[in-house]
Amino acid sequence: MTPVVLGGVIATRLSEKKLGAILARRRPAGGTLQENRKTVTLLQEEPLKSGLTARVGACMNIRLVLIGMTLVLAPALFAREKTDVLVMKNGDRMTCRVKGLVAGVLYVSFDYIDGTTSVEWSKVARLESDQLFIVKTEDGSVYTGKLHTAESPAGQPVKIEVLVPPEPSVVVDSPQVVSIIETSEKLWRRFNGEISFGVIYSKGNDSTQYTFGSQTAYLRERWSAAANFSSTLSSSTGTNPSTRNSLDLICTRLLPWNKYFYSGLGSFLQSSAQGITLQTSVGGGLGRYFKNTNRSKISVLGGLAWQSTNYKPSLVPVARQNLAAAMISTDIQYFKFNKTSLDVNATVFPALSEPGRFRFNANATYYIKLISNLSWNVSFYGNWDNQPPPGFSGSDYGSSAGLSWTFGLK
Fold this sequence. Notes:
Elements: E1 2-6, E2 9-13, H1 16-26, H2 33-78, E3 84-88, E4 93-102, E5 105-110, E6 113-120, E7 124-137, E8 142-150, E9 159-163, E10 170-173, E11 177-182, E12 191-202, E13 207-219, E14 223-235, E15 242-254, E16 260-271, E17 276-292, E18 296-311, E19 321-336, E20 340-350, E21 358-371, E22 374-385, E23 395-407
Antiparallel strand pairs: 1-2, 3-4, 3-7, 4-5, 4-11, 5-6, 7-8, 7-11, 8-9, 9-10, 12-13, 12-23, 13-14, 14-15, 15-16, 16-17, 17-18, 18-19, 19-20, 20-21, 21-22, 22-23
């Protein structure tokens, strides 16, 4: 047999003698010429399907290995001694490890309790820790230091003292604290993130959809960097697999004026539904937090961007398209104590070099906490282009559901 490459998959060309012998065994008695041709077609398609299945299986094996390595290594990297002191308003005193404060929930862990415990921030009377934390307040101020509780008159809000040597300590009312993020002089302890994975199977058309995503953030006092990756693979009987892969890189720095920041971003997209082999977007701009509390965060960013898009080969060749565009992006986050959260991001690119053309991207994820660091999530993604090249789709959107596991902060 002679190997032949079809679309990156190794198929097989059978010799005439070999093919005749196989046909003699499979052909029903009195078979017609059309039946013989149909048998030949099926024999030639079998190796292609087998190769395709192997590719899908290989992709899934790689993803499972990456997930397994992360789950095994992450706990060892982020562990530290549990020597922090937490006192509740009812008088309970506990020795623990404070991991961070998000959405009105203080996350702590104990030597004698497996996993992470959630504590309502408004019920905390005293907090002591020699670990370094980044403390953010509603007015946009950010401090880095060790945490202690300052004395306050009866009936007054609890005051958190942030020790920032060699500078004087800073005292903040606890209701004004939006987030407390664990950091460290050690590089690997400054990372926080999430890994998600999901599978959807439909027996009706024998279709399967795999989703994998990861988010990683590196946090400092006045700036942060984040990377978000998502991958979707869909396959069903009688159709070619559909793939979508995206990588977003974001760097943000707070300005001296409270609630204002500037941000730069780079994104890379591959979408078989839109025929996009690679779309590169680079941009930056000025943003502002319009709401920043323990229950919600809303920010808007405006600036400029450049996009370069390569499309797959087609009957009518399409050259690489370069666009200069304005950029307007918004992030919305809502939280409910230790139960659910909603993250929504939407970005529109009005083209400046091709007036009248718009590109729009949206992502939304709803989380329901199950236990400890494990959550159930339902996600939606979408990309739209109101003037795609002739013969290409202007949209690609879908939804998925699966499990999420967080590391670092909680």
